[in-house]
Specification:
It is built from five helices and four strands. The protein is globular and about 40 Å long. It is of the alpha+beta class. The strands form two sheets. It has a two-stranded antiparallel sheet with strand order 1-2. Strands 3-4 form a two-stranded parallel ribbon. Helix 3 crosses helix 5. GO terms for molecular function: nucleic acid binding. InterPro entries: RNaseH_sf, Transposase-MT_Hybrid, Transposase_1. It comes from Trichuris suis (pig whipworm). This is Tc1-like transposase DDE domain-containing protein.
């Protein structure tokens, strides 16, 4: 399973969960710490502007542990609309496009699959990610103001 954190310009962090492991609050919290480091590196000098963060309502994402770390980071969480599982931009936009690209591809190893995902994510044309967010915006409960 791939977890991909992205914004309007590009992918910030891709993490792969191998085997039949599931995402737990503690592992998601650690992943958010990696994301914060990646954001500081890739958006150098812009974190003071704030972070609007969206994730779905999975149990690990809504745990007290994760809510605490998001408050610690001072990230503003965009609520996930409860009326559809495909409303997350990664679900209806990013992964849909990625699956179209990878359809029919057989990988010799997990490393080959990871490389293909990372290469695809990093070679999208200018405006690709912004378009995904633009299409998602009508469904988002984005704070105004």
């Amino acid at each position: 399973m791939a977890t991909i954190f992205w914004h309007s310009d590009r992918v910030i962090l891709t993490d792969f969960l191998e085997g039949e492991r599931i995402v737990m609050a503690s592992s998601y919290k650690a992943l958010l710490r990696k994301l914060k480091t990646a954001l500081a590196r890739k958006r150098r000098g812009k974190l003071h502007l704030g972070v609007l963060f969206h994730h779905d309502n999975a149990l690990a994402h809504s745990s007290r542990t994760v809510r605490t770390v998001l408050r610690e980071f001072r990230w503003e969480v965009i609520p996930h609309a409860p009326y559809g599982p495909d409303v997350a931009p990664s679900d209806f936009f990013l992964f849909t496009k990625l699956k179209e690209h990878l359809k029919g591809t057989l990988f010799e190893s997990m490393d080959d699959a990871k490389r293909a995902v990372s290469t695809w994510c990093n070679t999208q044309p200018p405006g690709f990610y912004k378009e995904g967010l633009r299409r998602w915006r009508p469904y988002a409960e984005v704070p105004r103001g």
